[in-house]
Amino acid sequence: MTTEETTAGPGCPLSVGPPSDTTPYAHYARMDELLGLQHPLSSADTEPGFIIMSQVKELLFKLLHTEFSTARDQLAGDLLDDALWTLRRAARVQQVLLVSWETFSVLSPVEFAEFRDVLGSASGFQSAGYRRLEFLLGNKNPAMTVPHQNTAGYDAVVGQLHEPSLYDAALALLARRGLLTPDDATSPDTTRPYRAGAEVEDAWRAVYRDAVRHRDLHLLAEALMDTADQFARWRYTHLVTVQRMLGAKSGTGGTEGVAWLARISEHRFFPELWSVRSTL
């Protein structure tokens, strides 16, 4: 990237040049601030990597939230082709997120123990970015907002609970296409996980049984399955990584560790897209 591209590129060029103590690239992406956010609390050689990769995951959560929000809004606006392209981008981000576990899995139990105590009550369970992502995809549970009370991220988490999910938008599209009866509620309860039931599975079955007629909806179904599949793999890899690092010990912050991860790894987003496969 050249100076000209960062200061006079397409879109909105930088109106003010960078300070004298940095480069246009670092100024544009706030790299100096970003690279100054790692503050290990122990002398362990592996703690910097743990912090950096934890931050990388949070940035990827944020990017996925942006992409899935865009796809949801595109579906709501009947821009299905655009939504499919957005979900294509998101799938690549999910692949990077999945691979991120590799850097944690190589930590031996002894290496992790060298700095685990300095984590205190800190736990990935407390990630507001990940909770918003779960809510955005339709896995909504008001009780999961509690860990974020009295934090800067609480309003965003609660706000996400009350927004329509990506799956809500997909099912509303099926209704507009005549494959699903419209939701008769004048003000649907968006805090519920999603509209569930045999009727939803029937709608997806109609799409799969006539994939030629419903080509774009068939592509949407498979794109959503790609999303759900990648998240299932991410959760399972999380489980195995923690088992490798901690065994059956409790997780940080007083969480159940492996026992809780084993239960959550069984969850699937967009459940009717999974169950309909048994009927085709």
Offer a few descriptive terms.
disordered N terminus, 280 residues, mainly alpha, single chain
Written account of the structure:
With about 280 residues, the chain is mainly α. The chain is about 60% helix and about 0% strand. The protein has helices at about 5-10, 25-30, 30-35, 45-75, 80-100, 100-105, 110-115, 130-135, 155-160, 165-175, 200-210, 215-245, 260-265, 270-275. It is globular, with a radius of gyration of 21 Å. The protein starts with a helix and ends in a 5-residue tail after the last helix.
- Helix/strand-derived category reads mainly alpha
Spatial shape: globular
Strand content: under 5%
End-to-end separation: 50 Å
Q: Overall pLDDT, averaged?
A: 89
Outline of the structure:
This protein has 280 residues and is mainly α. The chain is 59% helix and 0% strand. Helix 4 packs antiparallel against helix 5.
List the helices and strands and how they pair.
Elements: H1 3-8, H2 24-29, H3 31-35, H4 47-76, H5 80-99, H6 101-105, H7 109-116, H8 128-137, H9 154-161, H10 166-176, H11 198-209, H12 215-246, H13 258-264, H14 271-275
Helix pairs in contact: 4-5, 4-8, 4-10, 5-12, 8-9, 12-13
